Amino acid sequence: MLISCGSPCTSDIDSEEHSYKIERTYVKPTRIMLESGHIKNANQLLQQGRHQSTAKKNDLIEFNNSYGTAAILLDFGKEMHGGLEIVTGMFKGKKPINVRVRFGESVSEAMSNIGEDGATNDHAVRDMNLALPWCGKIEVGNTGFRFVRIDLLDKDRVLQLKEISAISVMRDIPYLGSFKSNDERLNKIWQTGAYTVHLNMQEYLWDGIKRDRLVWVGDMHPEVMTILAAFGANEVVTKSLDLMEEITPLPGWMNGKFHSYSMWWLLIHHQWYMNTGNLAYLEKSKEYIYGLLELLEENMDSEGKETFIGECFLDWPTRGDQIEVRKGMQALLAMSFDAGVDMALAFNDEGKAEHYKTVAEKAKSYGPEFPTRKSPGALLAMAGMLDPKVVNDDLLVKDGVKDISTFYGYYVLNAMALGGNHQGAIDVIREYWGGMLDLGATSFWEDFDIDWMQNAGRIDEIVPDDKVDVHKSYGNYCYKGLRHSFCHGWASGPTAWLSQYVLGVNIEAPGCMKIKIEPHLGDLEWVEGTYPTPYGLIHIKHTKDSEGNVKSDIKAPREIEIVKVK
Predict the structure, then answer these.
(1) How far is CA 301 from CA 264, 291, 304, in A?
(2) Largest CB tally within 10 Å, which of 121, 178, 202, 404?
(3) What is the distance, to the nearest Å, from the Cα of residue 209 to the centroid of all Cα atoms in its chain?
(4) What would the 3-class secondary structure string for 256-268 be?
């Protein structure tokens, strides 16, 4: 049950250039997962409250340690960002009573101890001791969670509560884009990807709401593509791009050492301009854009090969294979100069544009050996350096959804579409991202391996002894065990992909002035949805007849030229 607390709970955040609203919404528990010790009237916690302590003494929830530690585990129904409100009664003694509060993105995380199975308090404190006031109210927590466990710590006290509510804290923005088809699994995946990014649209565009709660520019690219499809232009993107430019003076690389993330910064700027047509914003970063492209050119040899110093990064699964990573870096280099051509033309700098075109062609002419990993293979196909159909047939479809990450899985989907395998990409979305839903996810994860499905318990249940606890048992690199983020914006790629390749929206001119509609329904019978533009929403519906022909109904703002591809 969602209770909007109205205008008093909506914060207007203003600065010199940015204004946005953060909405606080009270959420009641949907179920009690566990009770231990002596707890009276626990079901009262599921009832709607008033968020106010009173002198009334009946209908109180009572925690008593007389029969062992009194503890309760609450499920709030879905992943959210925020904290907890606890309203207390007039318990004996009047002095504060001590409890332990544990937040978790899974049941097992909410039941964990710090230091065990990867459970941490880094980036956001999710396990803490707290003194509750007599006949009062307290708020605690600022993290990503769905589950909360509360233990009474004082052995000789009886705690009386009136109510407990989660406080969901997120941007007050409408879902302008939409996607609906005859396949409810795909519909849910589109919505879950959009919701995952919405949660991460806090003061800045974060990677995850539990951790790292940072602006990682590479992560931003799929997030921005999702934002454009689901919400339209939002200042959280420009604010985050500006932050990274401000704190990364050239010749530094974004996020400290990531050459690839600096290139993703360029690609995001290019895509933002194509969708919004905001030339004034692009021109604010003109000097930095040119300086970064110059730096990239300095990191190429005479044959067009990248010469980045040190370890390079695409995604975590490929990190240990620098030969394959470098193939992907070559593709990103070429894509960056392709974007540079368009941006220079936007600046009416034909000389720069011609130069960047020459550099892009040189970067593409240095053809690395055919990749053995899907992530770099996808980038090489997207950059036009390899035939996408060959990449699809000889690499991407091998071993099903293995060697796909939640981050670069988006680019694998794009490369499959470029290779004409739209149905295969739809099937990957159903199996891979749908697999997380099958395990109880309400937002998409930092990482996922399809092999985790074997004998796995759900994350929204207490895992039976004969099942594998997915959260604490798996994860790699910096996200082992319970440190693993279960709400990570880079995993939202299917939302953007379904809008582009199934609904068929392709931006052909800056500001969405020209849009090509090219649907690929695969085995779907129909699909409909909306896509945000600077001039309003495009409304699209595609229906397949008995012979497989697709009939389209498209309503677009008059400022937009629509090109329909059959």
Answers:
(1) 21, 18, 5
(2) 404
(3) 9
(4) HCCHHHHHHHHHH
Helix, strand, or coil here: 500?
helix
At a CB cut-off of 8 Å and minimum separation 6, what does 277 contact? 510, 511, 512, 513, 534
Query: Residue 257: what pLDDT?
Result: 87
Question: How many residues would you count in the chain?
Answer: 566
- What's the pLDDT tens digit per position in 104-130? 999 999 999 999 999 999 999 999 999
80: Cβ–Cβ under 8 A, 6 or more apart, which residues? 27, 144, 145, 146, 166, 168, 170, 199
The neighbour count for residue 243, using CB atoms within 10 Å, is 15
Asked if residue 306 lies in contact with residue 299, where contact means CB atoms within 8 angstroms, the answer is yes
Which residues have CB under 8 Å from 323's CB, separation 6+? Answer: none
Locus of tokens 């009237």: 41
Backbone angles phi, psi at 86, to 5 degrees: -120, 125
Residue 271's closest CA among 507, 20, 527? 507
Contacts of 85 (CB under 8 A, 6+ apart): 26, 51, 137, 138, 139, 164, 165, 166, 167
**DSSP bridge pairs for 158:** 64
Q: Tokens 């990682």 appear where?
A: 216
Q: Minimal CA–CA distance to 483: which of 239, 223, 94, 126?
A: 126
**C-alpha to C-alpha distance for 503 and 556, rounded to whole angstroms:** 14
Specify whether the CB–CB gap between 96 and 178 falls below 8 A.
no
439/427 Cα distance (integer angstroms): 18
Cα 56 from chain centroid? 44
Tokens describing residue 377 = 């293979």
Distance CA 227, CA 267 (A): 15
Q: Is the C-alpha dihedral spanning 295, 298, 300, 302 positive or negative?
A: positive
3-state DSSP helix/strand/coil percent for the chain, to nearest 5?
Answer: 35, 25, 40
Q: Is the pLDDT of residue 482 over 60?
A: yes
* Gap between the Cα atoms of 489 and 484, Å rounded: 13
Tokens representing 206 are 């974060």
Condensed to tens digits (0 to 9), the pLDDT of residues 137-171 reads 999 999 999 999 999 999 989 999 999 999 999 99
CA distance 443 to 447: 12
Spatial distance between the Cα atoms of 436 and 119, rounded to a whole number of angstroms: 20
Pairing of strands 2-4, 61-64: unpaired
- The CA-atom distances, in angstroms, between 514 and each of 79, 270, 422, 508 are 37, 16, 23, 5
